[in-house]
Amino acid sequence: MMRLLRFVALASALLVSACAGLSTPPVAQPLQIEATADARAALAPAGRLRVGVYPGSPTSWVKNPRTGEPAGVALELGKLMAQQLRVPVEVLEFARVAEILEALKAGQVDMTFTNATAARSRDVDFTAPLVQLELGLLVPPGSAITAFANADRAGVRIGVSQGSSSQGVLGQRLQQASVVPAVSLEAAQQLFKTGQIDAFATNKGILFEMAEKLPGYQVLADRWGLENLAIAVPKGREAGRAFLKAFAQQAQSQGHLKAMAERAGLRGLAQP
Description:
four-stranded mixed β-sheet; elongated; single chain; 9 helices; alpha+beta
């Protein structure tokens, strides 16, 4: 269900590698955090920080659109967090976010970056939200669906990532359209190509990535909701809470989060 994406290596070395090749990187200020031994043991109990990512989402793991280097907010936040904890980083790839959440719940993954919902907070702990993304629809060329408001019709099939928060919300919200789970974002593209779905619903960061791989497909301008993304860690790691709070705050205020989002080509940020 999961496979090793990177060999275990020092986080500082990997962070430099991930950022290489950028001609004008956004300037981020150094973090000022001291990790105690208790925080280190709580947040990286295996002696390394195990970071869960899934491909195709700029908030998780993609290739930098300009350099081809690995990028993604979860990927880079994990490397930076490991650097601050002074432990190696291990990046683990999963097919979809639901698998990462299960691994977090089981203590097999130490952190990720994902939508913080009330339902998920029963199984994992979140920092305060750090990024807000619009939720939208991707439709194929010539689609009769021009906005979310006219998507809820009999016979309309809306794809979602299996186990995602979008599946849960739309499963309750849609009255006539049906929800079709996809086991991965790659599988969702195949559902489009074989005519098994009429639209795909998730955050616009992912939708714009998918649209680039599906010529003529369009991300609709309106939104049907918002995602509030935050760092997620397993329950029971209270000794690391103060460090995690300070890390999240400084990663945002010191410009690291913005730089990571730009390197990943993240789009669809919610507008005030």
